[in-house]
Kinase
Amino acid sequence: WIGLTNLLDGLGEAWVLDLKMGTRTWTTKASEDKVESQAKKCKLQTGPLGVRVVGGKLRRPGAAPDAPLERVGYHHGQPVETEADLVTLLRDFLPTDALRTSARAQLESIEAWWKGLDCFALYASSLLMAHD
């Protein structure tokens, strides 16, 4: 079983970004119908970027410090559909060099772990990033 905790515990005003990663959600044993339906779903959801911004909240540059956090992503009616929009969102979500460096190090660690697996096949994943 998996034990979950509140990942936002201790954060004051949490900025959150929920991403779905990957463009394949079926196994090698899936039927042709399953492959076709899942491929169509992935094309609509993650598209050519290979990532879908499910939801998030952040304060964009230039917003007043006391302004409410902006909600972004598919679940908030603001899908991110182009690479330029994704880059802008990630730059705004990680507004300092220290945050970008930390996020990159964590992602590289996850990538190394994935590449080291020899008994699992991972086709898609979720990333939840948060900071305040």
Q: What stands out?
A: The mean pLDDT is 86. The chain has one domain: 15-131.
